[in-house]
Amino acid sequence: MNKRTANSPDLVRKRSGTKAFEYHIDYLPEQTREIIKQRHYKSLIAQSPAQPVDESVKRSTAIKSRDEPAIMRQCPALLERKVQALNDQQKQIADTRMMLAQEVVRLQQAGMTRIAAVTFIVASMSQRPAHCPKPCSAPAR
Q1: What's the rounded Cα separation, in Å, for the pair 57 and 71?
Q2: For tag attachment on the chain, is the N or C end more exposed, with fewer CB atoms within 10 Å?
Q3: What pTM was estimated for this model as a whole?
């Protein structure tokens, strides 16, 4: 490692409080990098759930279905009416979908692509963190 980083001192640093050195992840072998990334992503999922993202709302006279969530954020009474119309299974499914979407966003912010994040979450579903709701069965159609 010292030979590989000899010409780039900014890619290696002395670890504070020890005699050890820390190397930039790009100088590690590919297999080691992948293992480190997977551990990092698993630790992100094991942490508490992501916080909701606040989006600005566009003002318009006609309400389009794509604008409905933004309008409901502005008017809690509309949201409450919609939520009360859902049965318990629909609420559980909606909560699970929102949690999965938040986890995908969190993994994207950590450097994964959206497809890689979804694939990673699906592959790790057997190791569900404690804060994730129990899986629910899909409604019969």
Answers
A1: 7
A2: C
A3: 0.43
19-48 pLDDT, tens digit each:
887 777 777 888 988 898 888 888 888 886
Alpha helices in the chain (DSSP H): 2-5, 30-46, 68-74, 76-84, 88-109, 114-123
Structure tokens at 99: 């949690």
- How many CB atoms neighbour CB 125 within 10 A? 10
Q: Which among 21, 87, 19 has a CA at the least distance from the CA of 11?
A: 21
Report helix angle 114-123 to 88-109, nearest 10.
Answer: 120
125: CB partners within 8 A, 6+ apart: 135
74, amino acid identity: Q
